Amino acid sequence: MLSRVSSSAERGGAGRRGILARILAAPVRATGVAASALALVVSGFTGGLEPAAAPGPPQQAAKATIEGKPWNVTVNGVGYTKDAKPLRPEKEGDHWIAVGATVEVTADETRNDIREALTLVGVPGLRNEKPSRVLLGRDETQAPELHPGLPEKLLFFWEIDPAAPQPVEANVQIWGKTQRASTLTGHRSWLDPEVKAHVIVPVQNLDQ
Amino acid sequence: MTYPGVPRSPGAYPAPGSSQPHGAYPAPGSPPAAGGPDADDGGRRGRLRSRFGAGLLIVAALAVGTLIRSGTPDVDTAERPFSRAGVIGRPVDARTFDATVLAVRGAAKIHRDGGLTGRQEHDTDGVWILLKVRLEAHDHTIQVGWAGLKDGKGRTFHSTERITQPLIGGRSLQPGIPLTGEVVFEVPKDAATNVTLQLTERPIDRRMAAMVEVPLPISPSAVDGWLANPAPVQIENPVVG
Fold first, then answer.
1. For B123, which residue in chain A has the nearest alpha carbon?
2. Which of A1, A67, A83, B36 is most buried, judged by most C-beta within 10 A?
3. Are B186 and B126 in contact (CB under 8 A)?
4. A6-20, A126-140, A187-201, B58-72: which has the minimum mean pLDDT?
5. Can you list the residues of chain B whose pLDDT is less than 70?
6. Total CB pairs under 8 A between chain A and B
Protein backbone atom coordinates (compact mmCIF):
# COMPACT_ATOMS: atom_id res chain seq x y z
CA MET A 1 0.00 0.00 0.00
CA LEU A 2 2.73 2.41 1.02
CA SER A 3 4.60 1.71 -2.12
CA ARG A 4 1.45 2.48 -4.17
CA VAL A 5 0.95 5.83 -2.41
CA SER A 6 4.56 6.81 -2.80
CA SER A 7 4.61 5.90 -6.44
CA SER A 8 1.40 7.86 -6.99
CA ALA A 9 2.89 10.91 -5.25
CA GLU A 10 5.99 10.62 -7.36
CA ARG A 11 3.82 10.77 -10.45
CA GLY A 12 2.17 13.81 -8.89
CA GLY A 13 -1.24 12.65 -9.96
CA ALA A 14 -3.14 11.90 -6.74
CA GLY A 15 -4.31 13.93 -3.78
CA ARG A 16 -4.31 17.69 -3.09
CA ARG A 17 -0.57 17.85 -2.74
CA GLY A 18 -0.18 16.28 -6.12
CA ILE A 19 -2.48 18.79 -7.87
CA LEU A 20 -0.90 21.74 -6.05
CA ALA A 21 2.55 20.52 -6.90
CA ARG A 22 1.61 20.25 -10.57
CA ILE A 23 0.07 23.74 -10.60
CA LEU A 24 3.16 25.18 -8.95
CA ALA A 25 5.35 23.35 -11.36
CA ALA A 26 3.42 24.62 -14.40
CA PRO A 27 4.85 27.56 -16.42
CA VAL A 28 3.70 30.97 -15.21
CA ARG A 29 2.11 31.83 -18.55
CA ALA A 30 -0.01 28.67 -18.57
CA THR A 31 -1.12 29.33 -15.00
CA GLY A 32 -2.04 32.93 -15.87
CA VAL A 33 -4.03 31.94 -18.93
CA ALA A 34 -5.87 29.25 -16.99
CA ALA A 35 -6.66 31.65 -14.12
CA SER A 36 -7.90 34.31 -16.55
CA ALA A 37 -10.11 31.82 -18.36
CA LEU A 38 -11.53 30.65 -15.05
CA ALA A 39 -12.19 34.25 -13.94
CA LEU A 40 -13.93 34.96 -17.27
CA VAL A 41 -16.16 31.92 -16.95
CA VAL A 42 -17.10 32.74 -13.36
CA SER A 43 -17.66 36.39 -14.30
CA GLY A 44 -19.90 35.33 -17.19
CA PHE A 45 -22.04 33.11 -14.99
CA THR A 46 -22.45 35.87 -12.39
CA GLY A 47 -23.54 38.51 -14.92
CA GLY A 48 -20.19 40.22 -15.33
CA LEU A 49 -20.35 40.15 -19.11
CA GLU A 50 -23.72 41.91 -19.38
CA PRO A 51 -23.53 45.52 -20.62
CA ALA A 52 -23.39 47.95 -17.71
CA ALA A 53 -25.74 50.92 -17.60
CA ALA A 54 -23.81 54.14 -18.20
CA PRO A 55 -23.82 56.14 -14.93
CA GLY A 56 -24.36 59.57 -16.51
CA PRO A 57 -24.44 62.83 -14.60
CA PRO A 58 -27.69 63.57 -12.78
CA GLN A 59 -30.31 65.64 -14.56
CA GLN A 60 -31.26 68.80 -12.70
CA ALA A 61 -34.17 71.16 -13.11
CA ALA A 62 -33.58 74.50 -14.77
CA LYS A 63 -32.86 77.25 -12.25
CA ALA A 64 -31.50 74.70 -9.77
CA THR A 65 -28.04 75.65 -8.51
CA ILE A 66 -25.45 72.99 -9.21
CA GLU A 67 -22.95 73.46 -6.42
CA GLY A 68 -19.38 72.36 -6.83
CA LYS A 69 -15.82 73.39 -7.50
CA PRO A 70 -14.46 75.65 -8.78
CA TRP A 71 -17.87 77.25 -9.34
CA ASN A 72 -21.58 77.01 -8.65
CA VAL A 73 -23.80 77.25 -11.72
CA THR A 74 -27.49 78.05 -12.12
CA VAL A 75 -28.91 77.77 -15.65
CA ASN A 76 -31.54 80.50 -16.00
CA GLY A 77 -32.72 79.96 -19.58
CA VAL A 78 -31.85 79.30 -23.23
CA GLY A 79 -32.61 81.45 -26.25
CA TYR A 80 -32.22 81.32 -30.05
CA THR A 81 -31.57 84.34 -32.24
CA LYS A 82 -30.45 85.09 -35.77
CA ASP A 83 -28.43 88.10 -34.68
CA ALA A 84 -26.61 88.84 -31.41
CA LYS A 85 -25.00 92.22 -32.04
CA PRO A 86 -22.41 93.36 -31.09
CA LEU A 87 -21.19 89.77 -31.47
CA ARG A 88 -20.13 88.69 -34.95
CA PRO A 89 -20.10 84.98 -35.81
CA GLU A 90 -16.93 83.36 -37.08
CA LYS A 91 -18.89 81.94 -40.00
CA GLU A 92 -20.90 84.65 -41.73
CA GLY A 93 -24.66 84.16 -41.47
CA ASP A 94 -24.54 81.77 -38.51
CA HIS A 95 -27.31 82.02 -35.95
CA TRP A 96 -26.85 81.94 -32.20
CA ILE A 97 -28.04 79.93 -29.25
CA ALA A 98 -27.45 81.58 -25.89
CA VAL A 99 -27.59 80.18 -22.36
CA GLY A 100 -28.13 82.56 -19.48
CA ALA A 101 -26.51 81.30 -16.28
CA THR A 102 -25.46 82.61 -12.90
CA VAL A 103 -21.93 81.56 -11.99
CA GLU A 104 -20.21 82.00 -8.64
CA VAL A 105 -16.55 81.10 -8.19
CA THR A 106 -16.10 78.83 -5.18
CA ALA A 107 -12.35 78.44 -5.63
CA ASP A 108 -10.08 80.74 -3.63
CA GLU A 109 -8.76 82.75 -6.59
CA THR A 110 -10.12 84.72 -9.53
CA ARG A 111 -10.80 82.44 -12.50
CA ASN A 112 -10.53 83.11 -16.22
CA ASP A 113 -11.74 79.72 -17.48
CA ILE A 114 -15.46 80.34 -17.04
CA ARG A 115 -15.99 79.39 -20.69
CA GLU A 116 -15.33 75.80 -19.62
CA ALA A 117 -18.28 75.73 -17.20
CA LEU A 118 -20.92 74.82 -19.81
CA THR A 119 -21.29 72.76 -22.97
CA LEU A 120 -24.30 72.10 -25.19
CA VAL A 121 -25.04 68.68 -26.64
CA GLY A 122 -27.67 67.27 -28.96
CA VAL A 123 -28.57 70.58 -30.62
CA PRO A 124 -28.74 70.16 -34.42
CA GLY A 125 -26.42 72.45 -36.36
CA LEU A 126 -24.19 73.33 -33.39
CA ARG A 127 -20.71 74.32 -34.59
CA ASN A 128 -18.99 73.39 -31.34
CA GLU A 129 -19.97 71.92 -27.97
CA LYS A 130 -17.98 74.66 -26.18
CA PRO A 131 -19.33 78.22 -26.26
CA SER A 132 -17.63 80.58 -28.67
CA ARG A 133 -18.29 83.71 -26.55
CA VAL A 134 -19.13 84.57 -22.96
CA LEU A 135 -20.45 87.97 -21.93
CA LEU A 136 -20.91 89.50 -18.50
CA GLY A 137 -24.59 90.37 -18.20
CA ARG A 138 -24.17 93.65 -16.33
CA ASP A 139 -21.91 95.45 -18.83
CA GLU A 140 -21.26 93.00 -21.71
CA THR A 141 -17.59 92.57 -20.82
CA GLN A 142 -16.31 89.78 -23.07
CA ALA A 143 -14.64 86.66 -21.62
CA PRO A 144 -14.94 88.02 -18.11
CA GLU A 145 -12.89 86.87 -15.17
CA LEU A 146 -14.97 86.06 -12.12
CA HIS A 147 -13.89 86.64 -8.54
CA PRO A 148 -14.55 84.41 -5.50
CA GLY A 149 -17.76 85.24 -3.68
CA LEU A 150 -19.13 87.53 -6.42
CA PRO A 151 -21.81 85.66 -8.41
CA GLU A 152 -22.53 87.10 -11.85
CA LYS A 153 -25.15 86.59 -14.53
CA LEU A 154 -23.42 85.51 -17.74
CA LEU A 155 -24.48 84.85 -21.31
CA PHE A 156 -22.82 81.89 -23.05
CA PHE A 157 -23.10 81.99 -26.87
CA TRP A 158 -22.81 79.14 -29.39
CA GLU A 159 -22.87 79.54 -33.15
CA ILE A 160 -25.38 77.39 -34.99
CA ASP A 161 -25.82 76.47 -38.66
CA PRO A 162 -28.64 78.63 -40.10
CA ALA A 163 -29.80 75.69 -42.23
CA ALA A 164 -30.45 73.56 -39.17
CA PRO A 165 -33.98 73.49 -37.71
CA GLN A 166 -34.56 75.82 -34.81
CA PRO A 167 -33.95 73.79 -31.63
CA VAL A 168 -36.89 73.12 -29.35
CA GLU A 169 -34.88 72.23 -26.28
CA ALA A 170 -31.23 72.18 -25.29
CA ASN A 171 -29.21 69.83 -23.14
CA VAL A 172 -26.87 72.02 -21.08
CA GLN A 173 -24.00 70.21 -19.39
CA ILE A 174 -22.46 71.75 -16.28
CA TRP A 175 -18.79 70.98 -15.78
CA GLY A 176 -16.62 71.01 -12.69
CA LYS A 177 -12.95 70.44 -11.93
CA THR A 178 -10.87 68.99 -9.12
CA GLN A 179 -7.99 70.75 -7.41
CA ARG A 180 -5.09 68.37 -6.95
CA ALA A 181 -1.33 68.18 -7.25
CA SER A 182 -0.31 67.77 -10.88
CA THR A 183 1.46 64.47 -11.51
CA LEU A 184 3.83 66.29 -13.87
CA THR A 185 4.77 69.37 -11.86
CA GLY A 186 3.59 68.68 -8.31
CA HIS A 187 1.77 72.04 -8.24
CA ARG A 188 -1.83 72.17 -7.14
CA SER A 189 -4.02 72.91 -10.13
CA TRP A 190 -7.64 72.61 -11.21
CA LEU A 191 -7.67 69.47 -13.32
CA ASP A 192 -9.87 66.56 -14.36
CA PRO A 193 -12.85 68.40 -15.89
CA GLU A 194 -16.02 66.32 -15.69
CA VAL A 195 -19.73 66.80 -16.21
CA LYS A 196 -21.39 67.34 -12.83
CA ALA A 197 -24.98 67.62 -14.03
CA HIS A 198 -27.09 68.37 -17.07
CA VAL A 199 -30.20 70.42 -17.52
CA ILE A 200 -32.80 70.07 -20.30
CA VAL A 201 -34.14 73.55 -21.02
CA PRO A 202 -36.75 74.67 -23.60
CA VAL A 203 -35.32 77.08 -26.16
CA GLN A 204 -37.07 80.43 -26.52
CA ASN A 205 -37.07 82.29 -29.84
CA LEU A 206 -35.60 85.68 -28.94
CA ASP A 207 -36.51 87.18 -32.32
CA GLN A 208 -40.26 86.93 -31.77
CA MET B 1 45.32 9.09 1.01
CA THR B 2 47.54 9.89 3.97
CA TYR B 3 50.19 12.47 4.11
CA PRO B 4 53.38 11.91 5.99
CA GLY B 5 53.14 13.36 9.50
CA VAL B 6 49.44 14.16 9.24
CA PRO B 7 47.24 11.98 11.49
CA ARG B 8 44.21 10.56 9.82
CA SER B 9 41.04 12.16 11.20
CA PRO B 10 38.11 9.96 12.31
CA GLY B 11 35.68 11.34 9.76
CA ALA B 12 38.08 11.32 6.86
CA TYR B 13 37.35 9.55 3.63
CA PRO B 14 38.22 5.87 3.82
CA ALA B 15 41.29 4.80 2.11
CA PRO B 16 40.84 3.41 -1.38
CA GLY B 17 40.17 -0.25 -1.17
CA SER B 18 39.12 0.00 2.47
CA SER B 19 35.95 -1.87 3.47
CA GLN B 20 34.84 0.88 5.87
CA PRO B 21 31.65 2.59 4.51
CA HIS B 22 31.68 6.36 4.17
CA GLY B 23 29.05 8.44 5.98
CA ALA B 24 27.67 5.56 7.99
CA TYR B 25 24.77 6.33 10.37
CA PRO B 26 25.73 6.60 14.07
CA ALA B 27 24.98 3.67 16.19
CA PRO B 28 21.69 3.77 18.17
CA GLY B 29 22.19 5.45 21.53
CA SER B 30 25.32 7.26 20.53
CA PRO B 31 25.44 11.08 21.20
CA PRO B 32 24.28 13.27 18.33
CA ALA B 33 27.01 14.24 15.97
CA ALA B 34 27.70 17.82 14.93
CA GLY B 35 25.19 18.92 12.21
CA GLY B 36 22.31 16.93 13.74
CA PRO B 37 18.83 18.20 14.93
CA ASP B 38 20.32 20.79 17.35
CA ALA B 39 22.37 22.26 14.57
CA ASP B 40 19.20 22.42 12.38
CA ASP B 41 17.33 24.32 15.14
CA GLY B 42 20.23 26.71 15.47
CA GLY B 43 20.24 27.35 11.73
CA ARG B 44 16.47 27.92 11.66
CA ARG B 45 16.70 30.40 14.52
CA GLY B 46 19.49 32.20 12.72
CA ARG B 47 17.45 32.45 9.55
CA LEU B 48 14.44 33.73 11.53
CA ARG B 49 16.62 36.35 13.22
CA SER B 50 17.98 37.36 9.88
CA ARG B 51 14.50 37.72 8.33
CA PHE B 52 13.19 39.59 11.38
CA GLY B 53 16.15 41.95 11.17
CA ALA B 54 15.53 42.58 7.47
CA GLY B 55 11.83 43.30 8.15
CA LEU B 56 12.78 45.66 10.95
CA LEU B 57 15.16 47.53 8.66
CA ILE B 58 12.42 47.90 6.00
CA VAL B 59 9.94 49.25 8.57
CA ALA B 60 12.59 51.65 9.92
CA ALA B 61 13.40 52.86 6.39
CA LEU B 62 9.70 53.47 5.68
CA ALA B 63 9.30 55.34 8.99
CA VAL B 64 12.29 57.56 8.28
CA GLY B 65 11.01 58.22 4.74
CA THR B 66 7.58 59.18 6.05
CA LEU B 67 9.18 61.47 8.64
CA ILE B 68 11.30 63.22 6.01
CA ARG B 69 8.31 63.53 3.67
CA SER B 70 6.05 64.98 6.37
CA GLY B 71 8.67 67.55 7.26
CA THR B 72 9.36 68.60 3.66
CA PRO B 73 7.20 71.42 2.24
CA ASP B 74 5.14 70.69 -0.89
CA VAL B 75 6.15 72.17 -4.24
CA ASP B 76 3.77 75.12 -3.98
CA THR B 77 5.10 76.08 -0.57
CA ALA B 78 8.73 75.55 -1.54
CA GLU B 79 8.33 77.69 -4.66
CA ARG B 80 6.09 80.39 -3.22
CA PRO B 81 6.88 84.03 -4.12
CA PHE B 82 9.47 85.93 -2.10
CA SER B 83 7.48 88.44 -0.08
CA ARG B 84 8.72 92.05 0.00
CA ALA B 85 6.49 93.40 2.75
CA GLY B 86 5.95 97.11 3.30
CA VAL B 87 3.49 99.70 4.49
CA ILE B 88 1.37 102.30 2.78
CA GLY B 89 3.26 105.49 1.91
CA ARG B 90 6.74 103.87 1.82
CA PRO B 91 8.50 102.48 -1.29
CA VAL B 92 8.89 98.71 -1.35
CA ASP B 93 11.79 97.16 -3.26
CA ALA B 94 10.55 94.35 -5.52
CA ARG B 95 14.04 93.54 -6.86
CA THR B 96 13.44 94.98 -10.35
CA PHE B 97 11.16 97.88 -9.41
CA ASP B 98 9.96 99.98 -6.48
CA ALA B 99 6.27 100.26 -5.62
CA THR B 100 4.70 102.83 -3.30
CA VAL B 101 1.03 102.73 -2.31
CA LEU B 102 0.05 106.39 -2.04
CA ALA B 103 -3.70 106.28 -1.35
CA VAL B 104 -6.76 104.04 -1.12
CA ARG B 105 -10.30 104.89 -2.11
CA GLY B 106 -13.40 102.95 -3.11
CA ALA B 107 -16.67 103.17 -4.98
CA ALA B 108 -19.92 101.47 -5.85
CA LYS B 109 -19.51 102.49 -9.48
CA ILE B 110 -16.45 103.43 -11.55
CA HIS B 111 -15.92 105.30 -14.78
CA ARG B 112 -13.06 105.12 -17.28
CA ASP B 113 -12.96 106.34 -20.82
CA GLY B 114 -12.60 103.72 -23.53
CA GLY B 115 -12.25 100.04 -22.60
CA LEU B 116 -13.00 96.83 -24.42
CA THR B 117 -16.75 97.17 -24.61
CA GLY B 118 -17.13 100.88 -25.00
CA ARG B 119 -19.19 101.06 -21.84
CA GLN B 120 -17.69 103.56 -19.48
CA GLU B 121 -19.55 102.94 -16.23
CA HIS B 122 -19.23 99.73 -14.31
CA ASP B 123 -21.22 98.78 -11.24
CA THR B 124 -20.66 95.83 -8.90
CA ASP B 125 -22.41 93.68 -6.33
CA GLY B 126 -19.29 94.05 -4.19
CA VAL B 127 -17.14 97.13 -3.88
CA TRP B 128 -14.52 98.72 -6.11
CA ILE B 129 -11.14 99.42 -4.49
CA LEU B 130 -8.88 101.94 -6.23
CA LEU B 131 -5.23 102.06 -5.19
CA LYS B 132 -3.04 104.95 -6.20
CA VAL B 133 0.47 103.56 -6.69
CA ARG B 134 3.81 104.89 -7.89
CA LEU B 135 5.96 102.42 -9.81
CA GLU B 136 9.61 102.89 -10.80
CA ALA B 137 11.86 100.42 -12.61
CA HIS B 138 15.37 99.93 -11.20
CA ASP B 139 17.89 99.42 -13.99
CA HIS B 140 16.07 98.04 -17.03
CA THR B 141 12.69 98.43 -18.71
CA ILE B 142 10.00 96.23 -17.18
CA GLN B 143 6.25 95.85 -16.87
CA VAL B 144 4.42 95.10 -13.66
CA GLY B 145 2.58 92.03 -14.87
CA TRP B 146 0.19 91.13 -12.10
CA ALA B 147 -1.67 92.73 -9.20
CA GLY B 148 -3.95 91.08 -6.67
CA LEU B 149 -5.62 91.57 -3.33
CA LYS B 150 -5.42 88.75 -0.78
CA ASP B 151 -8.09 88.73 1.89
CA GLY B 152 -8.21 87.31 5.40
CA LYS B 153 -9.87 84.09 4.18
CA GLY B 154 -6.97 83.30 1.85
CA ARG B 155 -8.87 84.33 -1.27
CA THR B 156 -7.01 86.19 -4.03
CA PHE B 157 -8.73 88.76 -6.26
CA HIS B 158 -6.92 89.70 -9.45
CA SER B 159 -7.05 93.31 -10.66
CA THR B 160 -10.22 93.73 -12.70
CA GLU B 161 -10.27 93.18 -16.45
CA ARG B 162 -13.61 94.95 -16.87
CA ILE B 163 -11.64 98.12 -17.58
CA THR B 164 -8.25 98.71 -19.15
CA GLN B 165 -5.49 98.79 -16.53
CA PRO B 166 -2.50 100.63 -18.04
CA LEU B 167 -0.27 100.05 -15.02
CA ILE B 168 -0.71 96.27 -14.99
CA GLY B 169 0.67 94.54 -18.05
CA GLY B 170 0.27 97.67 -20.11
CA ARG B 171 2.69 100.57 -19.85
CA SER B 172 6.40 99.77 -19.74
CA LEU B 173 8.37 101.31 -16.91
CA GLN B 174 11.64 103.00 -17.89
CA PRO B 175 14.42 103.06 -15.29
CA GLY B 176 14.41 106.25 -13.28
CA ILE B 177 11.05 107.47 -14.65
CA PRO B 178 8.32 106.81 -12.09
CA LEU B 179 4.72 106.34 -13.17
CA THR B 180 1.78 107.10 -10.89
CA GLY B 181 -1.77 105.89 -11.45
CA GLU B 182 -4.62 103.80 -10.09
CA VAL B 183 -5.01 100.04 -10.03
CA VAL B 184 -8.61 98.85 -9.62
CA PHE B 185 -9.98 95.75 -7.89
CA GLU B 186 -13.49 94.34 -7.44
CA VAL B 187 -14.03 92.42 -4.20
CA PRO B 188 -16.97 91.26 -2.08
CA LYS B 189 -17.94 93.72 0.63
CA ASP B 190 -16.96 91.27 3.40
CA ALA B 191 -13.40 91.01 2.00
CA ALA B 192 -12.73 94.73 1.63
CA THR B 193 -11.72 95.46 5.22
CA ASN B 194 -8.91 92.91 5.41
CA VAL B 195 -6.91 92.92 2.20
CA THR B 196 -3.24 93.07 1.26
CA LEU B 197 -2.00 94.39 -2.08
CA GLN B 198 0.28 92.02 -4.02
CA LEU B 199 2.32 93.16 -7.02
CA THR B 200 4.82 91.26 -9.11
CA GLU B 201 6.56 91.60 -12.45
CA ARG B 202 5.44 88.20 -13.70
CA PRO B 203 1.97 88.10 -15.27
CA ILE B 204 1.15 84.38 -14.91
CA ASP B 205 3.79 82.19 -13.29
CA ARG B 206 4.41 83.82 -9.94
CA ARG B 207 6.53 80.99 -8.51
CA MET B 208 9.61 82.31 -6.67
CA ALA B 209 8.91 85.83 -7.92
CA ALA B 210 9.67 88.88 -5.80
CA MET B 211 6.24 90.08 -4.64
CA VAL B 212 5.36 93.41 -3.05
CA GLU B 213 2.91 92.95 -0.16
CA VAL B 214 1.28 95.97 1.45
CA PRO B 215 -1.67 95.61 3.87
CA LEU B 216 -4.39 98.20 3.24
CA PRO B 217 -6.01 100.09 6.11
CA ILE B 218 -9.70 100.02 5.08
CA SER B 219 -12.36 100.40 7.77
CA PRO B 220 -15.96 99.12 7.55
CA SER B 221 -17.23 102.69 7.83
CA ALA B 222 -15.11 103.70 4.83
CA VAL B 223 -16.62 100.85 2.79
CA ASP B 224 -20.14 101.86 3.81
CA GLY B 225 -19.39 105.44 2.81
CA TRP B 226 -18.11 104.38 -0.63
CA LEU B 227 -21.17 102.21 -1.28
CA ALA B 228 -23.55 104.95 -0.21
CA ASN B 229 -22.30 107.20 -3.01
CA PRO B 230 -24.16 106.33 -6.26
CA ALA B 231 -22.06 108.67 -8.43
CA PRO B 232 -19.45 106.92 -10.58
CA VAL B 233 -15.86 107.57 -9.54
CA GLN B 234 -13.50 108.62 -12.33
CA ILE B 235 -10.33 106.51 -12.46
CA GLU B 236 -7.12 108.50 -12.66
CA ASN B 237 -5.01 107.86 -15.74
CA PRO B 238 -1.29 107.20 -15.22
CA VAL B 239 1.05 110.18 -15.20
CA VAL B 240 4.83 110.43 -15.07
CA GLY B 241 6.11 111.40 -11.67
1. A138
2. A67
3. yes
4. A6-20
5. 1-37, 114-119
6. 68
Please give the ipTM for the structure prediction.
0.75
A110 contacts in chain B (CB < 8 Å): 148, 156-158
Q: Where are the beta strands (DSSP E) in A64-168?
A: 65-66, 71-81, 95-105, 118-121, 133-136, 152-160
30-59 in chain B: CB under 8 A from chain A: none
The CATH number fitting domain B82-240, selected from 3.30.70.100, 3.20.20.80, 3.40.50.460, 2.60.40.1240? 2.60.40.1240
The angle subtended at Cα B38 by Cα B34 and Cα B41, nearest 5°, is: 130
Residues of A in contact with B125 (CB under 8 A): 150-152
Instruction: Look at residue A1 in the predicted model and tell me its pLDDT.
Output: 43
**Nearest Cβ partner for B162 among A144, A181, A188:** A144
* CA nearest to B184, candidates B118, B236, B220, B116: B236
Which pLDDT tens digit goes with each residue over B133-182?
999 999 999 999 999 999 999 999 999 999 999 999 989 999 999 999 99
Instruction: Answer for the pair A134, A142: CB distance below 8 angstroms, yes or no.
Output: yes
Q: How far is CA B91 from the centre of its chain?
A: 27
- pTM flag (> 0.80): no
Task: Spell out the domains of chain A, with CATH numbers in brackets.
Answer: 2-45 (no CATH), 59-205 (2.60.40)
Query: What pLDDT, in 10s, does the model give residues A127-146?
Result: 999 999 999 999 999 999 99
pLDDT band at A17 (very low <50, low <70, confident <90, very high): low
Among B69, B72, B76, most A C-beta atoms within 10 A, so best to mutate, is B76
Q: Are B86 and B213 in contact, with CB atoms under 8 Å apart?
A: yes
Domain ranges of chain B: 36-72, 82-240
Q: Which of A140, A150, A185 sits opposite B126 (nearest CB)?
A: A150
